[in-house]
Design brief:
The protein is about 35% helix and about 30% strand. With about 230 residues, the protein is α/β, with parallel strands linked by helices. Strands 5-9-8-6-10 form a five-stranded mixed β-barrel, surrounded by five helices. The radius of gyration is 17 Å and the shape is globular.
């Protein structure tokens, strides 16, 4: 039986609706709810992380250590840092930058840099990026700026875009990539724009449900191809 893992922050309504006829609550592990969906030849374990990098990292490690997943999936809604990305547009993340990691006073390296990586960018698994672009030829590959902050307003978003050439921002992706890499588990990330470069919390709230549903449409195709 193939085992897949999925970390979800707050966009829980989408998967509960999508898989309602085949969704099972596995357990509450360390305070995190874990669900499963049986696809006959494979099983998907879904851990609800809540908001933020620390909780996302804990859920990713839980899925790997206890449930022995061989692929890490993450979907979610994100803010746009790029004027060319539209509301409710779905993207595949090819790389992530942990923009609020800063050890420069100690080691003089770049903001966002983990020294075991070649640059500030943490790549997702290229073979899955290629798969996604084959499944949806119109999808854009994006760079995600990830940190412990909800980024509000055009000025703050533009700063992130200019500093890291990032297209979207969220609060979980860096943690999931780092944990997956440490365990040699491939990772694929699908994100949908909930708030534009000029928007913020209000747009996010208005578009959360629809944007999350859009993510699941593509995630379902990836699962079927695995």
């Amino acid at each position: 039986m193939k085992k897949l893992g999925m970390v979800v922050a707050v966009e829980t309504g989408a998967f509960k609706k999508k898989y309602k006829d085949n969704l099972k609550l596995e357990n509450k592990d360390a305070g995190f709810e874990v669900f499963s969906v049986d696809f006959n030849d494979k099983i998907l374990y879904i851990a609800i992380a809540g908001v933020g990098e620390i909780r996302a990292a804990a859920c990713a490690q839980l899925l790997i250590s206890k449930y022995e997943v061989a692929l890490m999936i993450n979907y979610g809604v994100v803010g746009s840092l790029n004027k060319d990305l539209n509301l409710i547009e779905t993207c595949v993340v090819s790389r992530v930058v942990h923009y609020d990691r800063d050890t420069s006073f100690l080691d003089h390296c770049e903001v966002g840099r983990y020294m075991e990586y070649e640059s500030v960018y943490l790549p997702t698994t290229s073979s899955y990026v290629e798969l996604v672009t084959k499944l949806n030829t119109n999808i854009k590959e994006v760079t995600c700026a990830s940190g412990e902050k909800f980024v509000e307003g055009e000025e703050e978003k533009q700063k992130l875009h200019d500093a890291f050439n990032a297209d979207i921002c969220d609060m979980e992706s860096a943690a999931i990539v780092l944990v997956s890499d440490a365990n040699k588990v491939p990772v694929v990330m699908i994100k949908t724009i909930s708030d534009s470069i000029k928007g913020g919390a209000q747009e996010y709230g208005q578009n959360l449900e629809l944007a999350a549903d859009k993510c699941l449409e593509l995630i379902d195709q990836i699962i079927k191809q695995y």
